Amino acid sequence: MTTGTKRIPRAIREQQMLDSAIRVFSDLGYRSASMDTIAKDARISKPMLYLYYGSKEELFSACVVRESGRLIDHLTSAATSGTGARHSLESVVEAFLDYVDDHADSWNVVYRQAVAEPSFSDEVEKTRSVLVDLTTDLLAQNSVDERSREVLEVVATALVGAGEAVADRVAHRSIPKSVAAGVVVELAWRGLAGDPAKSLTTPKEEKP
């Protein structure tokens, strides 16, 4: 039977396969999903899927890399589009939660499944490190007092962790995105304010 798949350019076909894989992995989980199910979702033969991606592990890894890259690109763009400390912060937080809300399957695969699989957890940590660096840079640009990069990284790590926890709720529709954005922005804004962290940077100045 002629399916016409050979007329589709390879680059487009690869993206279609990844789209199908994201849906199936999100619905069934990495361990329960099969290459046969993914091939059916993509409306291609299983041999063709294996021709592009030699194993389920390779396919899942490709999904994680693509989705992580898209998230980072999205947030990097938002971080450079804001004007002023508060607006920059709001832009990044809203862009983050918008992305999670619009790509719940992607979030489920990258941050719920991949992190639980030893073979892919390193890739998730790479993405998290980039997000922490991005947040640290944002804090450094907009903080009202002078703090070391080390302290800012601690604040950024806490904010990223809180953001991920809130994003989980958004992805599963258990909290409104607008409410979540307001909470995270307020939390991050307090991090920018500097008062709580000041005691960490100047412990010697505390009165006995």
Q: What would you note in describing this structure?
A:
This protein is mostly helical and 208 residues long. It has helices spanning 10-28, 35-42, 46-52, 56-79, 85-102, 104-113, 118-142, 149-171, 177-193, 195-201. Helix 1 (10-28) crosses helix 6 (104-113), helix 4 packs antiparallel against helix 5 (85-102) and helix 4 (56-79) packs parallel to helix 7. The chain is elongated and about 60 Å long. The termini are far apart.
> Structural class of the secondary structure composition?
mainly alpha
The biggest beta sheet reads: none
Q: List the helices and strands in order.
A: HHHHHHHHHH
Give the beta-strand count.
0
Number of helices: 10
Helix content: over 70%
Question: Hey, roughly how much beta strand do the residues contain?
Answer: under 5%
Shape: elongated
Cα gyration radius (Å): 20 Å
- Mean pLDDT over the residues: 83
Low-confidence stretches: 1-5, 195-208
Distance between the termini: 84 Å
Short description:
The chain has 208 residues and is an all-alpha fold.
Task: Tag the structure with descriptive keywords.
208 residues, disordered C terminus, mainly alpha, disordered N terminus, single chain
